[in-house]
Automatic annotation (TrEMBL):
Subcellular location: Golgi apparatus, Golgi stack membrane
GO CC list: Golgi cisterna membrane
Main location: Golgi
Signal peptide start and end residues: 1-25
Nucleotide-binding in keyword set: no
Entry's family note: Belongs to the glycosyltransferase 37 family.
Record protein name field: Fucosyltransferase
Amino acid sequence: MEKLTVTIATCFLLCSVLLLPPPSSNIFNRLKSNLTTTGSYDSKKPREKLLGGGLLATEFDDESCLSRYHQASLRKPSPHKPSAYLVSKLRSYEKLHKRCGPGSDAYKSATVKLGLKPGNGSESVGECRYIVWVPYSGLANRIISLVSVFLYALLTERVILVDQRSGISDLFCEPFPATSWLLPRNFPLLGVWGLVTRSYNAYLSRADERLGIQVRVFDRHAGYLQHVMDQIVACTQRENLLPELSTQVTNTSRSKRLLKVVLVTSLHPEYSVKLKRMFWEQPTSTGESIEVYQPSEERVQQTDKKLHDQKALAEVYLLSLTDNIVTSARSTFGYFAYSLGGLRPWILYKPVNRTAPDPPCVKAVSMEPCFHRPPLYGCQAKTIEITPFVMTCEDSNPGLKLVDAPE
């Protein structure tokens, strides 16, 4: 456990840098020009730092996948450094994938045996063993399951193959050099990274501080609910994430004000509208300037709709770029966002009887996502054993999550 410190959050980081179109895309030249003229992409940085401290292979050129190199310019330096052992495991896996992946003799034999049926989950051909990822449920659930399968492949020396019928190739670039992870089917790669960079440059880049608020209502009358709005305000003000309102106008000049941008993601626009109106109608007690931005307002979850999934993935990435984040209980969308950003979130407790709970939220003990249904081995299993590395989730019981071992 100490030697191979691989976590789900690490795998999220690996996925995070694969959101770009190829250089043939029309958006490529526009993005490259913008990032160059604004100076946000520093090509002089060591390639290792641009690629997550060695988490990603250096064989790809800069233009093969924009986010592979440009994502480092949008983030603050991470305090989490990958171990040399982890980096060596990743390099070994890439060699295995090239030897056994699409185009190899072993793969040609395997595709006959595997087919594209969900029932064929894990198979082997000669020295090469495979595990096939098949999409299920909404976008965040799919991404969490995808990185979990990759982690399993890494630990068991299997080759991950991805069923792309859900359009995964519309969201991610190829992660491994000189090979592919896709089962046969061709899709064009589109510009998720364009959605990210346009929003970042227009709304987030100017901020002195960025707060993400992810709102997901699990209610048959889902939509705008006043008690949820009350809970969001109570949490953010109690935890000093947003300032209290004042009845007096401060004399602080605009040039000296701290600008805090609040990024709200929700299917419904009313939560961001209420926040925006709140900080427009009254000044803040601290003199801070608060701007509220919501990228989309889809109203209804539209899983498997290409543009909807692309917007969702872009919003997850934008949330991961914030300094602090508040997420809804049991939301895999929120899990994906804060794990990707390496952030410990404030989790909103699930309301009971349509009443805002008190306290309204709790600070998570780690950046790892919660697994709502942990496996119970054997029909006789009655309890889940807790170890120094595992605890029950703050927002789901009997869910489990990874934590740092006590000193």
